[in-house]
Design goal:
384 residues, mainly alpha, 14 helices
Length: 384
């Protein structure tokens, strides 16, 4: 495993990468196309606890098999398989299809990359600090734009209470706090990455602490979306808030059903949803720091994040989607008369994506632990 290189195209033909790609593509087609097509992933009674309307597990499959394959060709094929398997009955699917391309390819690429790349402990701390800090800035910056433009009022005008970045006068208080914390977080990790520490561990204590923190962050985020005070709003209200085309965009991504009730969506009333993934990411980053300290024997040794690598990048994909479908970008490429995402849609897009990815992260984490346990048993058998 020490000679594994993510961008080594020839390593795709090794047994590990080929088998992971083969089974991963098959499972992606099953969860992304076959099960939604048969209606098995749509259970309306679940809406009182969680949306999207159709819960799919494609993201967890991509995370697991990209981390197992450890090859850019495999990750690309898994992402492409998910894109091609994407199913929507709406004639306006063209307005949302590129969002699917962005989400699945970004997730597949970075899941495989951060599971594979070998780096020193110092470099790993630097990378984690910068990436996690940037994700906090993405959440705060997106929320700040919505707060300053007052686009959250579209929800309130339609009797949908929604938590947003509170403003004092014209000053976005909470958005600024999250942004400042993200910068401090980044600076602390940069400072830690400058220190050369060599140590010998007599136990797996740091690894265990890191694993617990990662699990608690993901499980805590998932529990939050289940129990947090929220408001459900239906198709008609969605059209009133977003307009017909933007609602069709959300339906094509998150409803995935033929006929019947289309979209039912969530608005959280306690915590701004744009802060949720950054908060989860902050705790994951701390957990990764403990794991890095353990595996790199301080900060000077080399390590791979392996199964923990796919949990590094959480909210980059939805941010790139809203950038790609922004009025400014669509105007630059000359497509503004075709389709762009109105700002209020960002809230619901991030909400449904956050709900979906937290479910998939939890499943992926459990699967990773099962695989690690089986590998551990196999290695102990070989030694005996």
């Amino acid at each position: 495993m020490t000679d594994v290189k993510y961008f080594h195209l020839g390593q795709f033909f090794k047994k590990r990468a080929l088998l992971a790609t083969f089974f991963g593509v098959g499972l992606v087609a099953l969860t992304e196309f076959v099960l939604p097509w048969l209606g098995h992933l749509r259970i309306d009674t679940f809406w009182q606890w969680i949306t999207p309307a159709t819960i799919i597990f494609t993201i967890s499959i991509i995370l697991v098999f990209s981390a197992l394959a450890k090859n850019v060709v495999a990750s690309t094929l898994l992402g492409v398989a998910a894109v091609l398997s994407f199913y929507s009955p709406y004639s306006t699917v063209d307005v949302g299809f590129f969002a699917v391309v962005i989400i699945y390819l970004i997730i597949a690429f970075f899941a495989g990359f951060f599971a594979t790349v070998e780096m020193t402990g110092r470099t790993a701390l630097l990378v984690i600090g910068i990436i996690v800090g940037l994700q906090g800035l993405i959440g705060a910056g997106t929320s700040m734009f919505i707060s300053l433009t007052g686009e959250f009022n579209a929800f309130h005008q339609n009797s949908v209470n929604i938590a947003y970045g509170d403003i004092m006068g014209r000053f976005p208080v909470y958005d600024t706090i999250v942004a400042i914390f993200s910068l401090i977080y980044m600076i602390v990790f940069i400072i830690l990455s400058r220190k050369s520490i060599t140590t010998t561990h007599s136990s797996q204590k740091n690894e265990l602490i890191g694993q617990i923190l990662i699990f608690l962050s993901i499980a805590g985020g998932f529990i939050f979306i289940l129990v947090s005070p929220s408001v459900l709003f239906d198709q008609n209200t969605a059209v009133s808030i977003f307009g017909l085309t933007n609602t069709q965009f959300l339906n094509s991504l998150f409803a995935k059903t033929i006929g019947g009730t289309l979209g039912t969506y969530t608005a959280y009333t306690l915590l701004n949803v744009l802060y949720l993934l950054p908060i989860v990411s902050f705790v994951i980053g701390i957990g990764l720091a403990f794991i890095i300290y353990q595996r790199a024997n301080g900060t000077t040794g080399k390590l791979r994040l392996n199964f923990e690598g796919p949990f590094v990048v959480l909210n980059l994909a939805p941010f790139l989607v809203i950038c790609a479908y922004s009025y400014i970008f669509q105007n630059v490429i000359g497509d503004v008369t075709h389709f762009f995402l109105d700002t209020p849609t960002w809230f619901t897009f991030f909400t449904e994506y956050t709900n979906l990815i937290l479910i998939n992260l939890l499943i992926a984490y459990i699967v990773f632990k099962i695989i690690s346990f089986i590998r551990g048993l196999a290695q102990r058998k070989e030694k005996t």
